[in-house]
Specification:
The structure holds 2 protein chains of 2 kinds. By secondary structure, chain A is mostly helical. Helix content of chain A is 75%, strand content 0%. Chain A is globular. Chain B is mainly alpha-helical. Chain B starts with 7 loop residues before the first helix and ends in an 8-residue tail after the last helix. Classes of the chains: A mainly alpha, B mainly alpha.
Chain lengths: 310, 330
């Protein structure tokens, strides 16, 4: 097990380093971070000074090593707009995104697992057909359209705050997080319901379930304990990876609801061509996703010995 | 699937004995000559048993037929876009902006006074072109790399799989933003971005398929009579490995359409003057709570939904039809 974890962590570190190289080259070498300021606004000699200030006049390998070195010490540089430390900007929004991701995951697991279990236990019933049809349609509808629909019909209604948020009204976080979390959860809930139904159906055919029933275990216990424990494994994997994606910034949903998270920060940085912020958010997203996948892999190997022996 | 699998003889036999209701199965067991007499006739009619089987399974799926209709409609709109649009989708009329739908402008006009009906049709053309081109290119790159990784193994396998790890570490939209920002806004950069971050999954799928088939007996047989690596990959492994890869590719068209719309919504996709669905939505964003202006966002949003649902239904139907074994788990 220790060997497996070590190898997997090593792989993840290499992937992250290579991904950062990709981000760095794309932002600073292939693309010009000062592209939006033309010769007329910023004369060439001032542009050269700017490049020197941000260390962009050095050879690329040195720049990359510097970037990695700074990253390790928590220094992501200064943003181009107001010279704020990028790490502080990121630090201010990461908790918001984490809250959003966790609430969304809670909603989708709750809906998905319950719907999947009902569909599997009452196979071919009306409820099963309903779950299948609704999940097929929900998977097909992009998050982005769901988000706009929720915004159009529900924002400002009941507990859901108005979206271009006002500076005078203080809205508690649990109200603000509701709509974007629902928008993110709907598609994932559909996936979870499908996964849950499939794996539950498979587990219910197993011999040990028949044994449990033969012993006289109540149906409730057979489904809720014996079958659930084995059928939830694929859901755990899916949810783990999904959490990684959400932490990296649900950029579209956060932009739609103007939710002050990592994704919205990226959206605004794109608008103002703020290269240090853009690369920092992307690097953060890659790291979040890689770390979550790593955790899922290790958990999975822990639950299923066949994987770590392979 | 242009070439038949090498086991086509076997599948034809399956085709003739499969339909129980055609009363053929009892007869064929009694006299083999009856089957032989039927075979040439089938071949002349131009539908080999395997494809008829797939089609029969496919058309039993109602949603898949709905999907086929939607995809057909989109392709029709894409091809005949210049004839079908009553107005130039690019032409702005700043004296007549955000007009509600009427008999002249079926879907009303947008914030720049462009005819929404024409713009939506033009958007369909963009969606189909970008969706198909992107998926075909990812398919080409992914299949080639996946086949090399799976067939060569060792060094090539490690190299290619570690490469896919790097590209899969980026969420699709985030990666695409990076590429499009580097190369500037436009249709081509969007396609490049979605291929760069889209080939890796195809490659992995193809590698898995190739790995499984590489050790199979019929491939060993082909090798023993001196078939070259290229021939084994193209003629023996590819036809049997490609089905799940193609299904994945088809599912991916919907994903690509949404990705392009998302990029444009965020302002990094196509240029601002191009009537693309995501762009239209971002221009309508400020009007989303304005009463009487819902046509601005409702039509593009519906167009995106219908498109992705159509491709998803077709992909679902294809998966079930191509591999009946998968149906049990679903």
């Amino acid at each position: 097990m220790g060997k497996f974890i070590l190898r997997r962590v090593g792989q993840a570190v290499i992937v992250v380093l290579a991904a950062i190289l990709l981000v760095y080259v794309a932002t600073y070498a292939l693309g010009d971070p000062f592209a939006s300021t033309g010769d007329r606004q910023v004369p060439p000699e001032i542009a050269a000074q700017n490049r020197a200030i941000f260390g962009l006049d050095q050879p690329l390998p040195i720049q990359y090593i510097n970037y990695i070195g700074n990253l390790v010490t928590g220094d992501l540089g200064l943003d181009f707009d107001q010279r704020r430390p990028v790490i502080d900007m990121l630090g201010a929004v990461v908790p918001n995104t984490a809250r959003l991701a966790l609430v969304a995951i809670l909603i989708d697991v709750a809906i998905g697992v319950i719907a999947g279990i009902i569909a599997a236990v009452k196979r071919y019933s009306f409820a099963d057909v309903l779950v299948t049809v609704v999940s097929t349609v929900a998977i097909g509808v992009p998050t982005f359209v769901i988000g706009l629909g929720l915004l159009a019909f529900l924002s400002g209604v009941g507990p859901f705050p108005v979206v271009p948020r006002s500076f005078t009204d203080q809205v508690p976080w649990y109200q603000e997080v509701l709509l974007p979390a629902f928008a993110l959860a709907i598609i994932d809930a559909a996936f979870v319901a499908r996964l849950m139904r499939g794996s539950m159906l498979e587990v219910l055919r197993a011999d040990y379930i028949r044994t449990a029933r033969a012993k006289g275990v109540s149906e409730r216990r057979v489904i809720g304990v014996h079958a659930l424990r084995n059928s939830i494994i694929p859901v755990v994997t899916y949810v783990g990876v999904s959490l990684g994606t959400l932490l990296g910034g649900a950029i579209i949903t956060e932009a739609i609801f103007q939710y002050d998270g990592v994704g919205y920060l990226l959206f605004r940085a794109i608008g103002s061509n703020n290269a240090p912020v853009i690369s920092a958010v992307i690097v953060f997203g890659v790291i979040a996703y890689t770390v979550l996948s790593l955790i899922v892999d290790i958990l999975y190997a822990f639950l299923d010995p066949r994987i770590r022996l392979n | 699937m242009s070439s038949l699998p090498p086991t086509s003889g076997e599948s034809e036999a399956v085709g003739t004995s499969d339909p129980v209701r055609s009363s053929g199965s009892a007869d064929s067991a009694r006299s083999a000559s009856a089957v032989d007499a039927k075979l040439p006739k089938r071949r002349r009619s131009g539908s080999p048993g395997q494809f008829r089987d797939i089609w029969n399974r496919y058309r039993r799926n109602k949603l898949a037929l709905v999907g086929t209709f939607i995809v057909g409609l989109l392709v029709f709109l894409a091809i005949f876009e210049p004839i079908l649009t009553p107005f130039d989708p690019f032409e702005q009329n700043l004296l007549n902006t955000t007009a509600p739908p009427d008999s002249r402008h079926f879907f009303g006009t947008d914030v720049l006074g462009r005819d929404m009906f024409s713009a939506i049709i033009y958007g369909a053309k963009l969606a189909v072109i970008v969706g198909v081109v992107t998926v075909l290119m990812s398919l080409l790159v992914g299949v080639v790399f996946g086949a090399i990784a799976g067939f060569r193994g060792k060094f090539w396998d490690t190299l290619i799989m570690r490469l896919t790890d790097i590209f899969l570490a980026f969420p699709l939209i985030i990666g695409a933003i990076l590429v499009v920002r580097t190369f500037g806004a436009g249709i081509t950069p969007v396609i490049i971005a979605l291929v760069v971050f889209g080939w890796a999954t195809t490659a992995r799928l193809m590698r898995g398929q190739t790995l499984a088939l590489r050790e199979s007996e019929y491939v060993e047989a082909a090798r023993s009579i001196g078939a070259s690596d290229g021939r084994i990959i193209l003629r023996h492994i590819m036809p049997n490995a490609i089905a799940p890869v193609l299904v994945y590719a088809f599912t991916n068209i919907g994903v690509v359409v949404v990705a392009m719309a998302s990029l444009s919504f965020l302002g990094v996709g196509v240029p601002a003057n191009v009537p693309e669905w995501g762009r239209m939505l971002s221009q309508a964003y400020g009007f989303i709570k304005v009463p009487g202006q819902s046509h601005l966002w409702a039509f593009p949003a519906l167009a995106i939904c219908i498109t992705t649902l159509g491709f998803a239904f077709v992909a679902d139907g294809l998966r079930d039809a191509l591999d009946p074994k998968l149906r049990g788990g679903n």
